[in-house]
Design goal:
Elements lengths: L11 E4 L15 H6 L1 H6 L4 E4 L27 H13 L3 E6 L9 H8 L11 E2 L11 E2 L7 E4 L4 E4 L14 H17 L3 E4 L23 E2 H5 L5 H13 L5 E5 L8 H4 L8 E3 L22 H17 L4 E2 L9 H4 L8 H15 L5 E5 L20 H12 L4 H11 L36 H6 L4 H13 L2 H5 L1 E5 L6 E8 L2 E8 L5 E2 L8 E6 L8 E2 L4 E6 L3
Parallel strand pairs: 1-2, 1-13, 2-3, 3-8, 5-9, 8-10, 10-11, 12-13
Antiparallel strand pairs: 4-7, 6-7, 14-15, 15-16, 16-20, 17-19, 18-20
The chain binds 1-deoxynojirimycin.
Length: about 550
């Protein structure tokens, strides 16, 4: 049990390079900006940095549309900058983790340009091409994840190509062994550069069904969600095992795949010793507000037992199969302070208690915690005045979708405020200087207007800041066998106000208790008898009572 790998004991930090730090006065972040702040990340004891894509890209989906898999986008710097990042990070014992976007490329990738040029070129079947239906319309009624048909017509070939996401993100044809080999070669290129792991994007979509047929429409426009048509198609594991064997095996790296359609009973085939990856990012806990799929205007308030059940299910499922990547934020999600409480907070103090409460869960569950940039500063969502202010392609789609389904423009904008991916993408706030010290130029996305108070410089000096709370929690975790190795057990399972769990290792036990409400809650604290406080977001605890949003970690006295 004690022979865990380095990445099972580390803290991972996700950087959105475009918004991290700009050193060229361009208004977008760059690799030198990351190098300049490695000591900051070291102050959080981070051991791995996941970079969202930094490859050349037309940026239709902010880098998830890649036009060259083995180069650096000039906006971020050069290959030499990347090599310097690896070696500077290495000096601080930090690994760099790259994002592999292998379900699709950009439509500007040379492979696609060739593929679309005729029906008989050398790369003609590197993407997924189909003839029109008899009436000239799309081969199926599948709806892409960013809205509209999942098929786009190509005049040169007089055929349609498939795209799970935007039309500028054509799906690669994994059935073709040359395509697979080209992708493996690209990943091995980065292994040779010394990366410490990979996050693998949208992997559940790489295998397509043998026959393409219309689905029963699930939208007023007669379309059917492509996710339901193709996610986790039988046979996908053959590709994944080959991927593992040709790329990952034999290297001291970790893999974490984005996979939101894998059922707990299938997990053993996906992760662990005999699975394809080390970890899976799944969405069960981040989607508790959506009754079916991520349709923003369909969100509903949710019961705490639903969130707890999702977390507990993942903890149990990964107790013996693979390992859990713990996260509450990433570049696709709203800020956790706004997302995990059925409450609109009125004061910064409430927000800070909430942010610290989520941090407490993040750093005391079993698995590898992933902090998303800004989460450690207590970032909150933005709310811009018009849909035109938003950059995120899915925000625009979801806005139009809400209007199509009968909501007014202002209601549709409210859904965008609540769930836009831009909430997570505003620039990093380093100081009280111009543009929060992120850039001296006009920034690619506006800086959050709270930056004078919410920034590294100010929070560094404040002992009670959420940043310093993160640092304390991380230190506690890194020094605790119980928190690194210990088993997980949920307590007070049916309670709709409190999330409580125990971690135990040998004869030692640590408890985490969180009040998710704005009321003081009396509870049966028998299980905490003989335990003493390690850390809490109030600084102290009361017997048998949890104050609003209170989070506490206690250790049973026997340690
Ligand atoms: C998941 C990524 O996290 C997201 O940002 C992107 O838009 C899609 N995959 C498509 O690559």
């Amino acid at each position: 049990m004690k022979n865990l790998k380095w990445w099972q004991k580390t803290i991972a930090y996700q950087i959105y390079p475009k918004s991290f730090a700009d050193t060229t006065d361009s208004g977008t972040g760059d690799l030198q900006g990351i190098i300049n702040h490695l000591d900051y990340l070291k102050s959080l004891n981070v051991g791995a940095i996941w970079l969202t894509p930094i490859y050349p890209s037309p940026q239709v989906d902010n880098g998830y549309d890649i036009s060259d898999y083995t180069a650096i986008d000039p906006a971020y710097g050069t290959m030499e900058d990347f090599e310097r990042l690896i070696s500077e990070a290495d000096k601080r014992n930090i690994k760099i983790v790259m994002d592999l976007v292998y379900n699709h490329s950009s439509d500007k990738h040379k492979w696609f340009l060739e593929s679309k040029s005729s029906r008989d070129n050398a790369k003609a079947d590197w993407y997924i091409w189909r003839d029109p239906k008899f009436d000239g319309s799309e081969p199926t009624n599948w709806r892409s994840i960013f809205g509209g048909s999942a098929w786009t017509y190509c005049e040169e070939r007089k055929q349609y190509y498939l795209h799970t996401f935007a039309k500028e993100q054509p799906d690669l044809n994994w059935e073709n062994p040359d395509v697979r080999q080209a992708l493996y070669d690209a990943a091995n290129f980065w292994i040779d550069k010394g990366v410490g792991g990979f996050r693998i994007d949208a992997i559940v979509y790489i295998k397509k069904p043998k026959i393409f047929i219309d689905g029963k429409p699930d939208s007023v426009d007669g379309t059917f969600s492509i996710h339901n048509a193709i996610a986790n198609t039988a046979g996908i594991l053959d590709f994944l095992y080959e991927f593992r064997q040709k790329v990952f095996d034999g290297h001291d790296i970790f893999t974490v795949a984005e996979a939101n359609a894998v059922k707990p009973e299938e997990l053993k085939f996906w992760v662990g010793e005999h699975g394809a990856f080390d970890m899976l990012f799944e969405f069960s806990h981040t989607n508790v507000m959506f009754p079916t799929g991520e349709v923003w205007h369909s969100w509903k308030t949710w019961k705490l037992t639903k969130l707890k059940a999702a977390l507990t299910e993942s903890q149990i499922a990964t107790a013996n199969n693979g390992w859990y990547p713990i996260y509450f934020e990433n570049h696709d999600k709203p800020r956790c302070i706004n997302n995990f409480f059925n409450v609109e907070f009125k004061t910064r103090n409430e927000e800070l208690l909430a942010g610290k409460a989520i941090a407490t869960i993040l750093l005391t569950l079993r698995g590898t915690p992933f902090i998303y940039q800004g989460q450690e500063l207590g970032y909150t969502n933005t709310a811009w005045d018009s849909i035109d202010c938003y950059n995120d392609i899915s925000s625009i789609d979801q806005y139009n979708w809400a209007i199509r389904d009968g909501f007014s423009a202002s209601e549709a904008l409210k859904f965008v405020h609540k769930f836009s991916r831009d909430n997570a993408r505003t620039p990093m706030q380093w100081s009280t200087q111009l543009n929060a010290g992120f850039s001296t130029a006009k920034t690619w996305l506006p800086v959050h207007d709270d930056y004078k108070k919410v920034n590294v410089e100010v929070e560094d000096k404040d002992a009670d800041s959420i940043l310093n709370y993160f640092r304390r929690l991380i230190e506690i975790r890194q020094n605790s066998e119980v928190l690194i190795f210990g088993d997980y057990e949920e307590i007070l399972t049916d309670d709709e106000n409190i999330y409580a769990f125990a971690r135990s290792f040998e004869d030692k036990k640590i408890y985490t208790v969180i009040n998710f409400t704005m009321q003081s809650i009396k509870f049966n604290a028998d299980f905490l008898k003989d335990s003493k406080l390690i850390i809490s977001n109030y600084g102290n605890i009361q017997a048998e009572n949890l104050r609003p949003l209170e989070a506490a970690v206690l250790i049973h006295n026997s340690e």
